[in-house]
Design a protein that fits this description.
The protein is an alpha/beta fold. The protein contains 9 helices and 21 strands. It has helices at about 80-90, 110-125, 160-170, 185-195, 210-220, 240-245, 265-275, 325-335, 340-355, and strands at about 5-15, 20-30, 30-40, 50, 60, 65-70, 70, 75, 95-100, 130-140, 175-180, 200-205, 225, 250-255, 280, 295-300, 300-305, 310, 370-375, 380-385, 390. Strands 1, 2, 3, 4, 5, 19, 20 and 21 form an 8-stranded mixed β-sheet that branches. The chain has an 8-stranded parallel β-sheet with strand order 6-9-10-11-12-13-14-15. A hairpin with a 2-residue loop joins strand 2 and strand 3 (about 30-40). Helix 5 (about 210-220) packs across helix 6 (about 240-245) and helix 7 (about 265-275) crosses helix 8 (about 325-335). The longest helix has 17 residues, at about 110-125.
Length: about 400
């Protein structure tokens, strides 16, 4: 399959964009999906490489992780092509086929170096066999000091359109999503500028009131960064950012489903209120993902990783080591949602939010052959990026 540009996946459950085929097939040619449907509609071609499974295997679109800092001892803030290559090669192991390289609050010089490196990488990245970096998520430094979380407070600054424009130029125009606190001085001005330039304005690390969130929505915000974390919570006299995320249908909402950043009951509460129509699963993972327990760096701060939890010295949660396939398993366990809902939250919604649904985010003819095959236990058998195997489960494991 690695050497043949045309192949057919046959007799498995295919979750296509339009419907689910219990006994389905999908044909891939030169990195694109060319046919999809029930097996009885497949017309055999002697040149096709036929790869047969059983309906207990699920074929789903690859995940799009729009909020991820690092993995396998690499981080977007390393500002190197090696780091981004490491992330791109590692993420298919957890079913991710596209992602936004995510920065964090640091000195303007450090942020610019990371943006420059990411922009150059995106323009010259490998075409297959690894996840695609489809843009950059600028998380900070335009956030609230009151809701800094693990973002270094010394480098937090007020939203600044001129500085942002300089950074977007350094990134070769690849910043696709910006997390900011709209209640900060000039926050609404930057929000409006992002909207005008087709960049997602996300409310995060924010102490905004419900009314201030409403003003931000009016200015163009349509996204919430990691629900529950780094935001004004819900109060019966002040709904805050959390209340707005629940109530305002304009907002797509990220969620870290590791059972630590928010306990399972709160995941279910959010899911019941927001539904899969507006939710996006993210990992927000650090360089420590896929590594052993130990101490690792996050923006110049030591982070202690112990099994499933990553914290600063004072106990503050510092991102995650969550893998996307575990987020999927957790989401199903916590909410009893079905695979169609999972596909919305991991593929369809992020693709639509980032304006790449014409080529990614679902299994449909003409789209990139970015997909994952899951077994009955929801473990990953294979991840394919643009028609080439990027990860395959070893026999016996």
């Amino acid at each position: 399959m690695n050497t043949q540009s045309t192949f057919v996946l046959y007799n498995l459950t295919v979750y296509s964009e339009k419907q689910t085929y219990k006994n389905g097939y999908m044909k891939v040619e030169n990195g694109k999906i060319t046919e999809i449907g029930p097996v009885d509609q497949y017309t055999a071609d002697s040149t096709d490489l036929l790869i047969e499974y059983s309906p207990s295997f699920a074929l789903i679109p690859g995940a799009i992780d729009i909020h991820i800092h690092g993995a396998a001892n690499a981080d977007a803030m390393d500002a190197t092509s090696d780091a981004l290559n490491t992330m791109a090669r590692t993420l298919p192991k957890e079913g991710t086929t596209s992602f936004l390289a995510t920065t964090m609050t640091q000195s303007p010089e450090a942020v610019e170096r990371a943006l420059t490196a990411a922009g150059q990488f995106i323009d010259g990245q490998a075409k297959t066999a690894q996840a695609e970096v489809i843009g950059i998520h600028l998380e900070g430094p335009f956030i609230s000091p009151k809701r800094a979380g693990a973002q270094p407070p010394d480098h937090i600054i007020d939203p600044d359109v001129s500085l942002y424009q300089k950074w977007q130029q350094a990134a070769n125009g690849h910043i696709k999503l910006v997390t900011l606190a709209p209640e900060q001085p000039n926050g609404l001005t930057l929000t409006a500028h992002l909207k005008e330039t087709n960049v997602v304005a996300s409310i995060g690390h924010s102490d905004a009131t419900y009314e201030e969130v409403s003003q931000a929505i009016q200015a163009g915000a349509n996204h919430i960064t990691h629900l529950y974390n780094g935001m004004r919570g819900l109060h019966h006299r002040e709904p805050g950012v959390l209340g707005a995320a629940y109530l305002r249908e304009e907002l797509f909402t990220e969620l870290i489903v590791d059972g630590i950043h928010c306990r399972p009951e709160m995941v279910k509460l959010a899911y019941d209120q927001i539904t899969s129509d507006r939710m996006i699963l993210i990992t927000d993972s650090l360089r420590a993902k896929w590594l052993k327990n130990g101490t690792y760096d996050l923006g110049g701060q030591p982070v202690q990783v112990n099994d499933t939890r990553a914290t600063l010295a004072d106990g503050t949660l510092a991102g995650s080591i969550l893998k996307m396939n575990d987020a999927i398993k957790n989401m199903i366990s916590y909410t009893k949602c079905d695979m169609e809902d999972i596909i919305k939250m991991t593929a369809v919604n992020p693709a639509k939010q980032l304006n790449v649904f014409d080529r990614k985010g679902s299994l449909a003819v003409g789209k990139d052959a970015d997909f994952v095959i899951l077994n009955k236990d929801l473990d990953i058998e294979m991840t394919v990026c643009k028609g080439t195997i990027a990860y395959q489960k070893e026999e016996g494991k």
